[in-house]
């Protein structure tokens, strides 16, 4: 399905990409001893004459998304052959210790940020035309004629983002770690803000709805680029799949197009993002424009209900995302997310004055809630269960609480039992962790939420994160489910939520007021 | 030394580069069985969906110098990762059977015509911005997401050359092989004609004086781009080395500059090229502009004479080129080449009316001639000898004859003894072979010259040469002194001489007239 009018509105709101030239970088040496990376300074790169097999590592001292430019010179005889360079970009130091040619993981190695380029003319300014996400750059002379040496006279990067630095709202806190987590979270959002809210500027580089929900929330308390949220909502609304389903992600190039992937939870989050957007902006016209899309998502999700009003489980891989965990059964989470989306849909129906829809959704919500507690709740274990094997997981409890199946003290006790349940499937991604923090705050456990957040995201900070990561396992910070850190996305939108939590719930000014 | 005025004249005469779009190419399959390459047709490339590790070989059915453009599409799901391509260009099929990553030869592997590129957006038109010299292109999908396949919808090349196709003089011959050799020789010149007369468009890509001498001769009987010869002479004249010596080659980028290499013979050939140019064009002003440069070359060469008027031998690698053969002693050849250049210098002195110089050179010539026959001629073996070890070589006899140390019937008998001398060091390059043909014609052995030329250059034609090669050993056509055919230059200017010989001496029309 393709709505030309909505698409025009979406693209008309595409933000300007701001450029920021970064000239400062340090030349460093890195050595790895077991798990420890040792860093030593090197002389200024301009002073180093590079022969075959020589290399330099440049550290731009923060994470950036942008374009690299190298001003190359030489010493010795006039260059009499091209220079062959291998240029590797890395978000974290650890990536530089992996050999791209040996990468055998399942993520496409085409994502590895490495180029092998010929430089035909030296001296010259080489501007790499691809965009990279990085802090470190290693420049290796794979080959050069023996008659001359290469010099990097100047290395600079043009960082790009649509985030308006001057408009960033301040954050007040006497807690240093909170300030640090906020700073890294905001930088994460900043670097993911390009033409759209990208999931990660290194890998995928696309508008995914799961990331957008969190990015939009952080945006409202930081850069306030609300038109960008609107643009992205209109993109999803304009480019639905054949049956009118909101797709999981949108490609921008060569022209905006929806992916053929869809996920039960992601389609429903469209409604939630629109509700959040409306609450922040009061933009009723947007709700009027997009409410039909929301209604269709409810309809499609309803088709997945069995006669008991329970979301039918599925063994289709990725039918519902929830968390990056194939062992996690998604049924109960899907039920909770449907309720969570229905609450948003009711608010939107009220907004547009669609009384029939409001009434229908309210009744459906009650049926889902009743079914949740009747069919997905294990009265003995006193925990929500999911799937044919009655799996217990953090995700199921969290989404049932966020969806309102259980509330107040009962929900608090539910969480206590969940934490004490050794068999409960735990969380894998910062994305799922975000929902956990959200649920803890919802049930009034603000202190626990803060402590958990400080520990989890603070762990990345302690591991020198400049931006928050797509995946973080506190036990194994350098773990990669893809078979190599070189394809891990270390600046990933779904991890930027702490700035939203901190600025909304853990703000000194607010506490004092 | 830097002569701004001459340089301005040189660059003002740079030719226009003509573009020619080539859309036709065949998709082929190549297999190698021992030394034999088996070629099979494949379906049209547009019909082939490429997954990871798939490749296609395109045959543009002639040698070209130019730029490749690929119109890429896909089938399957929307591309969700970049595509990583390895693109290899080859002048001959054999090159495609070598692995670039395993090349360990002494020529810089940066010359290997292979790119590894990321294509971020599909569909898109990918225009590679480097210039390549090739007939074959292999496109290999190193990596692609499993969700889609790549299609090459269109492959085209924009061939470039400054040769004016419409101005090519016709060549008449009833001899089919002569016509074929002429065609390939002209194509060789054509593809080497760019902003300057390049030695080879694949490797070096520079203006070398040794190649220029032969290119200019062929040019006069084919494209008549005489201003281009003039431009190149002015470049060498404008950009001499510190002592006023004409360098062996000129770099054009980023700005015209002389190489620090010089060779005894190459510096002297400047005079010969100017004389040839003057004889063809009558451009006396050019001779007036450049005669001082010629005089300086004679002066510098004279400094290399010992008190007997014999060119001092040297053990400096490459002090005098003559042939690509380190085992060849160059002394006697250098002596012959000095005489050869003196003859040209005398003609130029006459042209500009420099009577003193004319007289001086005439006397010097006689002294050199006398010294040649007194000190470099072995009266027992009746052959010219070179160096402390009195080495006998084809090169020494050839250059003594071309320099006029021996003439007429005596020279004819000298060549008979040379051919019959088993210890005589033979020739390695088509470049030296060119001088051999030239000398045979000079001594009146036109038929032998024709037979030798037909056999040697015809051997390349029999080996499917589209253009003539830098190196050709009839015993081992695929030999590479560089450790890999992938760095052999298979379109090399110094091999284009047959078109000059054929059109000057073996032209039916001329014979009949």
From TrEMBL, chains A, B:
Enzyme Commission designation: 3.2.1.40
Domain spans labelled Glycosyl hydrolase family 78 alpha-rhamnosidase N-terminal: 45-158
Alpha-L-rhamnosidase six-hairpin glycosidase domain residues: 174-503
Gene Ontology molecular function: any one: alpha-L-rhamnosidase activity
Keyword Hydrolase among record annotations: yes
SUPFAM superfamilies per record: Six-hairpin glycosidases (SSF48208)
Protein name (record): Alpha-L-rhamnosidase Rha78B
């Amino acid at each position: 399905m393709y709505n030309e009018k909505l698409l025009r509105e979406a693209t008309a709101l595409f933000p300007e990409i701001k450029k920021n030239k970064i000239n400062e970088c340090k030349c460093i040496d890195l050595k790895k001893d077991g798990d420890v990376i040792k860093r030593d300074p090197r002389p200024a790169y301009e002073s180093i004459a590079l022969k075959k097999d020589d290399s330099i590592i440049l550290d731009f001292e923060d994470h950036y998304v942008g374009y690299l430019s190298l001003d190359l010179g030489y010493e010795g005889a006039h260059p009499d052959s091209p220079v062959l360079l291998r240029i590797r970009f890395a978000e974290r130091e650890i990536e530089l210790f992996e050999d791209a040619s040996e990468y055998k993981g399942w993520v496409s190695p085409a994502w590895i940020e490495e180029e092998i380029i010929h430089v035909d003319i030296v001296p010259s300014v080489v501007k790499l035309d691809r965009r990279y996400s990085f802090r470190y750059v290693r420049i290796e002379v794979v080959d050069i004629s023996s008659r001359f040496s290469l010099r990097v006279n100047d290395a600079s990067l043009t960082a790009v983002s649509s985030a308006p630095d001057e408009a960033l709202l301040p954050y007040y806190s006497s807690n240093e770690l909170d300030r640090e987590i906020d700073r890294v979270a905001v930088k994460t959002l900043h670097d993911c803000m390009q033409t759209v809210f990208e999931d990660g500027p290194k890998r995928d580089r696309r508008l995914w709805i799961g990331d957008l929900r969190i990015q939009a929330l952080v945006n409202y308390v930081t850069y306030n680029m609300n038109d960008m949220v609107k643009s992205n909502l209109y993109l999803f609304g304009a480019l639905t799949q054949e049956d009118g389903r909101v797709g999981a992600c949108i490609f921008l190039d060569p022209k905006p197009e929806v992916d053929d992937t869809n996920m039960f939870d992601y389609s429903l989050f469209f409604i939630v993002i629109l509700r959040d957007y409306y609450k922040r902006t009061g933009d009723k016209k947007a709700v009027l424009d997009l409410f039909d899309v929301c209604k269709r998502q409810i309809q499609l999700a309803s088709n997945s209900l069995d006669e008991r009003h329970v979301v039918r489980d599925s063994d289709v891989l990725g039918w519902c995302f929830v968390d990056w965990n194939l062992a996690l059964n998604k049924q109960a989470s899907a039920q909770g997310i449907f309720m969570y989306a229905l609450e948003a849909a009711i608010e939107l129906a009220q907004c547009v004055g669609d009384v029939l829809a409001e009434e229908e959704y309210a009744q459906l919500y009650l049926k889902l809630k009743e079914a949740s507690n009747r069919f997905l709740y294990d009265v003995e274990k006193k925990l929500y269960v999911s799937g044919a094997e009655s799996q217990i997981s953090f995700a199921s409890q969290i989404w049932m609480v966020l969806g309102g199946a259980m509330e107040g003290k009962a929900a608090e006790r539910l969480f206590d039992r969940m934490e004490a349940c050794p068999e409960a499937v735990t969380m894998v991604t910062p994305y799922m962790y975000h929902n956990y923090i959200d649920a803890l705050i919802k049930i009034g456990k603000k202190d626990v939420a803060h402590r958990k957040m400080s520990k989890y995201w603070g762990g990345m900070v302690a591991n020198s994160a400049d931006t928050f990561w797509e995946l973080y396992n506190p036990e194994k910070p350098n773990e990669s489910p893809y078979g190599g850190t070189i394809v891990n996305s270390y600046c990933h939108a779904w991890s930027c939520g702490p700035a939203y939590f901190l600025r909304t719930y853990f703000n000194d000014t607010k506490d004092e007021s």
